[in-house]
Amino acid sequence: MEQLKTIGRELAMGSQGGAWAGQSKEFLDLVKSIGEARSKAEEDRIILLEIETLRRRIAEPDVPRRRMKDYIIRLVYAEMLGHDASFGYIHAVKMTHDDSLALKRTGYLAVTLFLSDDHDLIILIINTIQKDLRSDNYLIVCAALTAACKLINEETIPAVLPQVVDLLAHPKEAVRKKAVMALHRFYQRSPSSVSHLISNFRKKLCDNDPGVMGASLYPLFDFITEDVNSYKDLVTSFVSVLKQVAERKLPKTYDYHQMPAPFIQIKLLKILALLGSGDKQTSGHIYNVLSDIFRKCETSSNIGNAVLYECICCVSSIYPNAKLMDSAIEATSKFLKSDSHNLKYMGIDSLGRLIKINPDIAEEHQLAVIDCLEDPDDTLKRKTFELLYKMTKSSNVEVIVDRMIDYMISINDNHYKTEIASRCVALAEQFAPSNQWFIQTMNKVFEHAGDLVNVRVAHNLMRLISEGFGEDDEGADSQLRSSAVDSYLRILGEPKLPSLFLQVICWVLGEYGTADGKYAVSYIIGKLCDVTEAHLCNDTVKAYAISAIMKICAFEIAAGRKVEMLPECQSFIDELSASHSTDLQQRAYELQALLSLDSQAVGSVLPLDASCEDIEVDKELSFLNNFVQQSIEMGANPYLPESEQLGMSGVSNFRSPYQQEASSHTLRFEAYELPKPSSIPVIPQASVLTQTRDLVPVPGTTYYRENNLGSKLPTGPEASSADVGIKLRLDGVQKKWGKPTYSSSSSGATSAEKTTNGIGAHQDGIRSQSRDTVYDSRRQQPEVSAEKQRLAASLFSSSASKTEKKPTSGQRMPKGSDANAEKSSVARSVSPGNSEVKTAAPDLLDFGEPVPISAPTIDPFKELEGLIGPAQAVIDNSITTSGVQAPDLMATLYMDTPPSGSRSSSSGLVSEGVYSTDKGSHTAKPTPAVKKGPNLQDALGKDATVRQVGVTPTGNNPNLFRDLLG
Amino acid sequence: MIRAVIVMNTQGKPRLLKFYEFQPPEKQKELMRSVLAVLSGRPDNVSNFVEADAIFGPGTRLVYKHLATLYFIFVFDNSENELAMLDLIQVFVETMDRCFKNVCELDIVFNFNKMHAIVDEIIFGGQVLETSSEQVMKAVEEIARLEKSSNSISFVPKAVSGRFGR
User: Fold this and answer.
1) Residues of A in contact with B166 (CB under 8 A)
2) Is there a contact between B70 and A305 if contact means CB atoms under 8 Å apart?
3) Which of chain A's residues have a Cβ under 8 Å away from the Cβ of B17?
4) Which of A249-263, A365-379, A527-541 is predicted with the least confidence, judged by mean pLDDT?
5) Strand B123-124 vs strand B70-76: parallel, antiparallel, or unpaired?
6) Helix (H) / strand (E) containing B4
7) CB–CB of B70 and A13 under 8 A?
8) Residue A840 reports pLDDT greater than 50
9) Which residue of chain B has the CA closest to A217?
10) Counting C-beta atoms within 10 Å of the first and last residue's C-beta, which end of chain B has fewer, N or C?
11) How far is A374 from chain B (nearest CA, A)?
C-alpha cells in the first residue's frame, strides 16, 4: 500500500483534534501523550493515571450516554495496551442495553473484547442478546450475532439457539450468512448442542445466495473432517458447485482479483480432498473439475496460486490420477522455481505432499530443495527440514540428520529445538546405518539439546549400548562399548553438559568403563567423581554417579582385586551419606557396605555385565516356604490373609473394599456394602456386580492400578460361570487369587519398565509357572472333593501360570525370534495362556499409557471346556519339574540399584509352603486367561508401536542392526 | 479457523487486537511480545509466513504483512491456506484505505472501534465472511449511516461526517 507509507506522520496532531472521527479531545490527548512517551515506564504511568481518572468519572451519577461511550472506548484502549480495566466491564454490559445503535454496538464491541465466555457478567447479556436477535433492525441482529459468537458458551447455547436457527430464514442474506457461521461457532464450542441441526447446514448449501452457500461450507468442512462417510452423497453437489464457480457462473461481485470466488473454491477443494481421500469412486467424480481448474488457474496473482496450491493438496489426497499428478508436479515445480519466498514455501509443502504418492519426483527438484535449505528465511528452512524428514531413507539419513543437527545447534528457539531433536532421534532410530553412527548422533543430540529430549531416548541409548546387537557377535558389542566409553570420557571434558546426558555417561562408564581394561579403575572413578563437581548436578545425576562407582568397585572386588578408595571418592561418598536425599544416602551406605563384602557375595550382588538380565521378583516370598513349613510343623498358626483376619471371610463381597485398599491406596468415595449372606455368590449377577463395582470409584488411575484392573476385570463372568457350572464353594475366593494376580502383574510391569529382555528369564518363567501350579494346587487341597479339586486346580493353575508368565513374556518380548520359540513352547503347554502371553506383554512393555483391557465377551462355558484338558497336563508336568534352588537373598535386597535396572536373581523356588488355608473356590481363577483373548489385536498393535519407538532388533528398523548381524 | 487478528507497530505497540479465542490481557501482552520478537528478527524479502506453534499452540501459523510502520498479522490453524490469508490481509488493508483515504497509523489508533467494525465484516467468529472490500465498505457505511440516524448528537465536523459515523 503506497498510501500507508505516510503512516510515519508525526503524532503531534493536537491541532487537528476535531478531525478524528468523533473521539473526544481527551482520548486524543491520551493517544498523543502515549505516542510521545519516552519509555515504557512513562507510558505505563500515563495509562495508569488515565485508568484512575476513568474509574472516578465512570462511577459518577448521571454520566451522559455519549460521554460514557467515550469512557468505554478509552477503557478498551487501555486494556488493549495490557492494563486491567475490569472495573468498567459492568458499564460496558449496561451499554449493550442501550437503544441507540451506536451505543449498543460500542457496548457489544467492548464486552466481546473484555469478557471471556465464562465470565460472570455474561449472564446479564444473554437476555439482551436474545432480544436483539429478534430485532427488526438487521444491524442490531448482526451485532448480537457477533457478540453471541464470542460470548456464548456451552451452557448458554440453548438460550439463544432457537433465535439463531430462526435467523437462517431471515430475508437479508448478510444475516443468514452470519447465522450459519454463528451456528458453526456453537458447533465448535459444543458439538452435541447443535448436532440435530446438521440437516440445516446441508439445506443452506442450496441457498439462493452464494455467500450463504459459501458460509455453510465451513461447518460442513468440520463435519466432514469428523465423519467422512456420512457425506459422500454430497460429492456431486460440491463438484457441481465448484464447477459453476470455476466457470464464472457467480455474480461479478464475488470475483476477487479476477478470480471467481477464490475462497469458496479453496474451501470446496479442501472438502473434496477429504471426501476423495482413499476412495476411488468418489475421486473419479472430482478429476474433471480439478483438471479444469488446473487449466484455468491464473498463476500471476497471489490468490490464483492459493487456489492452485489447494488443487495440489487435493490431488495428493484423493485417489491418484496420472494426468492430474502431472499437472500437480508441473505446478509444484513452478512454485519451486519462483523467486517469491511465499511460493517457494508453498512449493516445498506441495512437494512434501506429492512425494507421499510418488517418492521419485523429489529427485528432479533436489537443487531447489537444497537452495531452500540454504535460504536465510527461517520459515522456508524449517519447511524444508520437514520435507527432508519425510524424504529420509536409510541411504540419505546420515546427510539429513547431520544437517538437522547443525541447524539445531544454530538456533535458540527451544520449542523448535525440541521438535527437531525429536525428529533427529526418530530418524536415527529408524534408519541408522550403523550403531557407531547411531551412538555418535545421539551423543550430539544430547550434548546440544539434552534437556529437551525425552527421557525415553536416553534409556533407549543405554539399552542399545548394553544389549549390543546380536548374541553371536560379542566382539562387536564390546568394541561398540569401548568406543562409547572413549567418546564419553572425551565429552566429559566439555563444560555444561545437560543432566540427562550426564546420566547416560555415568551409566555407561559404570557398566563398561573398566570392561576392556583400557582404563584404570581409579581413572574412571576419578572421572565419575569429577562429573559431580564439574557440572551442576541434580540428585539424579549424583545417584547415577554413585551407582556407577559402586558397580566399578563391585567388578573389581568380584575379580579378586583390591579397590583403593581415592580421597575425592571418599569425600564424595561422605557428602552423599549426609545428603538430604534419602535415596543418595542409601546408595552411599550401600556402597560402603559392599566394600566390606567378600568377592563371592559381591559377585552375586552385582554380577559383571548383567544389566540386561532380568530380575525375577518373587512376590510370594516363596523362599520362606521352608521356614513357614517348619514353623507350622512345630505348631505355629498358619498365616491368614488380612481380610480373613478381619473375620469377614464369610461375606462374599468383602473383597471389594479390601481389594480397593490393597491395590490403589486411595480414599474410598462410596459407602461400604452391607454384609450379605454367603449364598449370594452362586448367583452369577451378584458376583459380576461386585466385580464391576470394583472398577468404578477410583479416581486418578495409576499405571499399576490399570494393570491390576486389567487382570482383575475378567474374573467377574468367569467366577459366575464357575459358580453355576461347578458349584464350588466360593468363600474367600476372589481375594485369594486377586492378590497374586495383582502382584505378579505389577512386578512384570516394573521389571519390564526397568529393563529389557533377558535370555535367561524364560526358564525362570517356566519354572515359576510350574511352581505356582503346584503351590496353588496345594493350597486348595483341604476341603474340596477330589474331582472338583482337580478341576479347580487345573483351571486355577492355568490362570496362575498365566499371571506368572506375564512378566517373563513381557521381558522377552523385544528379543524377538528366539524368544518367540520359547514363548510358543510355553504357550503350548498351557493353551489358554497363549493368547494371554501376547496380550499381556505389550501392556507391560508399554512405557506410555497403559490401555485398560476391556471386559471381553466370549462365552465362558465354552472356554472352560477347552481349558480343562491341557491345563491338567500342566499340573502333572509342573510337579515334576519344579526345581529347587537356593534363594538368593542378597540379590533381592540389592536389586534396586536403579541405573543398571535389574540383575538376575534366581528365583526357582521350593514350592511346599502352606501359604494359607483358604478354601476351595479357586475356580474363580481359571478363565481370565481366555478372557483376554479378544484384545489380541489391540495388543499386537500396541506391541508394534512399542517396537517402533524402541530400538529393538526386530520389527521396524532392521537396518540399524543389519551390519552387525551381517 | 482464524485465531487472531493483530495490528501492531514496529515497536510492538498494539493497534488492534482481536482474538477469536478469549485471551486475558496479560496473555495478550505476552503473545504480542513473542510475535514481535519473531517478526523483528526476520529480514525483508523473505516469505510472509511463520510457523507459530511455539506461540499459539500446535498447528498454528501466522501470515504477516509489513507496511510502513505497521505489522498486520493473521494467526490461523491448518484449516486455512497461507496464500489466501495473505490476500485476506490485502482485503483488510484495502478496505481501510478506502475507508480512511490515505490511511496512516494515526487513523488506526484513533479509530480502532471502526477498525473492529471492518474486521467484523471480514471475519466472523474466526471464519472468512467477506472478501470483497467493496462489500465490506458498503456494510460499514451502512452501519455508520444508521448509527448516525439513531444517534443524532454529533460533534463530528462536516468534512468527515460522511466517513466517520461514531
Assistant:
1) 21-22, 102, 105-106
2) no
3) 80, 113
4) A527-541
5) unpaired
6) strand B2-9
7) no
8) no
9) B127
10) N
11) 13
Secondary-structure breakdown of chain B: helix, strand, coil percentages, each rounded to the nearest 5: 45, 20, 30
State which amino acid sits at residue A52: E
CA gap A389, A331 in Å, rounded? 22
> In this predicted structure, which of A13-27, A263-277, A497-511, A861-875 has the lowest mean pLDDT?
A861-875
Query: Distance between CA atoms of A393 and A406, rounded to whole angstroms?
Result: 19
Q: Count CA within 13 A, CB hemisphere, residue A213.
A: 19
Nearest-by-CA chain B residue for A24:
B155
* Beta-carbon separation of A80 and B53 below 8 A: no
B165 touches A: beta carbon within 8 Å: yes
Q: Which of B25, B83, B153 lies closest to A79 in CB terms?
A: B25
Residue B82 domain-assigned (yes or no): yes
pLDDT digit string, tens, across residues A856-871 = 444 545 544 444 444 4
Angle CA(A581)–CA(A585)–CA(A588) in degrees, nearest 5?
A: 140
Q: Which of A60-69, A602-611, A782-791 has the highest mean pLDDT?
A: A60-69
Query: Lowest mean pLDDT: which of A114-123, A616-625, A692-701?
Result: A692-701
Instruction: Tell me how far apart the alpha carbons of residues A956 and A945 are, in angstroms, rounded to a whole number.
Output: 9
Residues of chain A contacting residue B120, judged by C-beta atoms under 8 Å apart: 146
Mean pLDDT check: name the lowest of A48-57, A308-317, A425-434: A425-434
**A424-448 burial, b if ≥16 CB within 10 A, otherwise e?**
bbbbbbbbbbbbbbbbbbbbbbbbb
Q: How many domains would you assign to chain B?
A: 1
In-domain check, residue B165:
no
Confidence check: pLDDT of A266 > 90: yes
Closest CA to A19 of B28, B106, B12, B1: B106
User: Residue B33 is part of a domain; what is its CATH number?
Assistant: 3.30.450.60
Nearest CA to A642 out of A624, A657, A622 is that of A657
Work out the pLDDT band at A604, boundaries 50, 70, 90: confident
- Chain B nearest-CA distance from A907, in A, is 49
* Residues 62-91 in B contacting A (C-alpha not used; CB under 8 Å): 67-70, 79, 81-84, 86-87, 90-91
CB A879 within 8 A of CB A790: no
Judged by CB atoms closer than 8 Å, whether chains meet at B47 and A342 is answered as yes
Residue B23 lies in a domain: yes
What is the count of residue pairs from A and B with beta carbons less than 8 Å apart? 233
pLDDT at B54: 86
Residues of B in contact with A215 (CB under 8 A): 127, 129
Q: Do B110 and A178 lie within an 8 Å CB cutoff? A: no
CA angle A353, A356, A362 (to 5 degrees): 80
Contact A102 B155 (CB under 8 A): no
Which pTM does this prediction carry? 0.64
Which residues 38-67 in chain B show a CB within 8 A of chain A?
41-43, 45-51, 53-54, 67
Length of chain A: 966
pLDDT value at residue A469 = 60
Residues ≥6 apart with Cβ < 8 Å to A929: A798, A799, A802, A830, A832, A833, A835, A836, A867
Residues on chain A touching B128 (C-beta within 8 angstroms): 263
Q: What is the pLDDT of residue A592?
A: 85
**Residue B148 lies inside a defined structural domain of this protein:** yes
Question: What residues make up the domain containing B109?
Answer: 2-154
Q: What is the DSSP string of A227-281?
A: -SGGGGGGHHHHHHHHHHHHTT-S-GGGEETTEESHHHHHHHHHHHHHHHBT-HH
Distance from CA of A162 to the nearest CA of B (A): 19
**Predicted confidence (pLDDT) per residue in A204-221, tens digit:** 888 888 889 999 999 999
A378 and B151 within 8 Å at the Cβ level: the answer is no
